[in-house]
Amino acid sequence: MSNIFQVCKPVCNILDRPNGNLIRQMLYGDRLDVISDIGEWVKCKRYSDGYDGYVKKSYLINWVSPTSKVRSFGAQIYKRPNIKTIPLMNVPFQSELTITKEYGDFFELKKDQFIHKMHIEPITELKKDFIETAEKYLGVPYLWGGDSQYGVDCSGLVSLALRNAGHSSPGDSSKQEKELGITIKNNEYLKRGDLVFWKGHVGLMLDEKNLLHANGYHMKVTKEPLDTAKERIKTNNGGLITSIKRIII
C-alpha cells in the first residue's frame, strides 16, 4: 500500500495529536507522506516542507500528480458540468487539481467532480511578485496555524505568498527567519517583499514603509505603517525586530 496521499477536502487540519490542537493546514490536492496509521487518524508529513502532525484519514485519497491549480479566490466543484447544480464543495485559492477530461466550459477532475475552466490555470504558472499574492488575503480572518483564505496566521501568509511564486517555505516563522532569504541591515532601505521578523511573528513589506501581516491584534490580515506595528508590538511585550530578510526569486 502506498504511503503517498493527497487531501480531498477544501482544507485539512494538521493537529499536534489525534483530536488535539491545530498546528498547520493543507489545501485540497496537497500531497503528504503517511508515517503511521492510528485508527481514524494518520501521522504524516506535509510534502512541501516536511511539517509533521496528525490528520483524519477520511480527508485523504491516493495521490495523483496535479496538472492545474485554482487561480481564483475560491472555486466551486460541481457534481455535473452545470453552474446551476448545487456545488459539492468550494476549494480555496492555490488548491492543486488533476484534470482528466474536458466538457465544454468545464474540466472533469474525477468521476462526478467538475470545475469551471475560468477558475484554473496550469500547475506550472507562477507569480513572481509574491506580494501581489499576499495582498489577495487582505482581510482574511486570523487563525493560529491557518494556511488558507478561510483563516491564516503570520507564517501561513508568507508560505501561501511564496507558494504561488514556486518558492517553498517552512511552516513556522522561527524556521522562516533561519531559512528564507538573505539578512539585510536595519539601516538599509526596505523594499517590497522584504520579510520583517519579531520573536514569533513575521510580516511582509508592501513598500519601504508599509507592512502586510496576519496578526492577533486586528484578528485578520491587515496593512499598516511598519512604525505603527513596531511601536504596538514593543508596547505589548512582543519585543523589537529580530531580523529583516530579503528573498530573491
TrEMBL record:
Question: Which Pfam families does its entry note?
Answer: NLPC_P60 (PF00877), SH3_16 (PF18348)
Would I find Hydrolase among this entry's keywords?
yes
The answer to keyword Protease applying to this record is yes
Q: Which Gene3D superfamilies match?
A: endopeptidase domain like (from Nostoc punctiforme) (3.90.1720.10), SH3 Domains (2.30.30.40)
Q: Which residues form the NlpC/P60 domain?
A: 124-248
Q: Give GO BP annotations, semicolon-separated.
A: proteolysis
- GO MF annotations, alphabetized: cysteine-type peptidase activity
Which InterPro entries does UniProt cross-reference here? NLP_P60_dom (IPR000064), Papain-like_cys_pep_sf (IPR038765), PG_Endopeptidase_C40 (IPR051794), SH3_16 (IPR041382)
Q: Which UniProt keywords apply?
A: Hydrolase, Protease, Thiol protease
Recorded family membership: Belongs to the peptidase C40 family.
Name of the protein described by the UniProt record: NlpC/P60 domain-containing protein
